[in-house]
């Protein structure tokens, strides 16, 4: 919380390592939503303008560029994940605000439902049968007889849980602090983590990457999975121990994995996930930020700050999300 009314600061740099056309779209839409502000690409600012900028809007910024903004009070990311910002800029004295957008949560829940159905209706197995020109009916189980476990019950996880629940799946979820969510059995703590692995037919990770979650999903948990369980990772790649995940797929502890996020992105050409018959690789597309709605949210946050001096809830740098 910032209590004193802030001075109007005219130039807000947009700092981002994104394609030029995307950067132009962000600057153009943000400017449209905030006609009283001057928002310009970082590279267009003079050294003096960089020195006095108090607010920046960022999308995967180059830390060296942010280092030139020596008067920053806060930065607003237009992305939801902040592990890179926290690790690269967490020791700087400004607040980090991340994108919390209901539209992003809807997009993610739609991806979670789509790929849960892909596993639920055995699409990888039918695609393999077709390749072999083999006419074979696999056993069918109703959604109501399946349990989907969601790891991470934040903005994205809660919406995904509600979407899966409306579709008829039994939904259980796990988070750091114990939640109370209608129609979702909520778990927390180490025992809760083991339980969600034991009970789920399909596991969906929507966990952020923090020092506590790095490598958290490993052999000791995969070995608890139900026979034929499926795994979806739409949170962050490094939350999963990749070698252990491959072992779990090869040994049959897991039946199939849908992976949208990886420790190294783009996924290197020689990565074993590419050619693995039990893996579906997606290029980090499950929930892209919507430039229109994200710009409106950033604009509303900035307006509130200008009018009242209040910042939106910022990232807890110690916790890492
Ligand atoms: P969020 O609101 O911060 O929620 C994070 C959830 O994870 C919370 O429920 C939190 O528990 C839980 N959590 C964090 N650390 C934990 C730990 N050590 N043990 C157990 N639970 C833990 O984040 P969000 O907006 O839902 O986004 C989640 C992640 O999705 C982002 O961080 C980003 O990495 C990823 N993402 C991916 C895409 C994509 O396209 N693939 C797009 C957007 C975002 P509490 O509720 O107790 O705090």
Can you characterise this structure?
The two termini are 17 Å apart. Helix 11 links the parallel strand 11 (254-259) and strand 12 (279-281). The chain is built from twelve helices and twelve strands. The protein folds into two domains: 12-101 and 289-308, NAD(P)-binding Rossmann-like Domain (Rossmann fold, 3-Layer(aba) Sandwich); 103-281, 3-Layer(aba) Sandwich (Rossmann fold), CATH 3.40.50.720. The protein has helices at 20-33, 47-52, 63-67, 83-89, 102-120, 123-131, 155-167, 189-199, 219-222, 242-251, 272-275, 291-308; strands at 11-16, 38-41, 55-59, 74-77, 95-97, 147-151, 170-175, 184-188, 202-205, 229-233, 254-259, 279-281. The longest helix is centred in the middle third of the chain and has 19 residues, at 102-120. Helices cover 37% and strands 17% of the residues. The radius of gyration is 22 Å and the shape is elongated. The mean pLDDT is 96. Strands 8-7-6-9-10-11-12 form a seven-stranded parallel sheet. Helix 1 packs across helix 12 and helix 5 packs across helix 7. By secondary structure, the protein is an alpha/beta fold. The structure holds NADP nicotinamide-adenine-dinucleotide phosphate.
> What series of H and E elements makes up the topology?
EHEHEHEHEHHEHEEHEHEHEHEH
Number of domains in the coordinates? 2
Task: Tell me the name of the CATH homologous superfamily of the largest domain.
Answer: NAD(P)-binding Rossmann-like Domain
Major sheet details: 7 strands, parallel
Residue windows where pLDDT falls under 50 for at least 5 positions: none
With helices defined by DSSP (H or I, 4 residues minimum), what is the helix count?
Answer: 12
**How many strand units?**
12
Helix content: 25-40%
The chain-level structural class is: alpha/beta
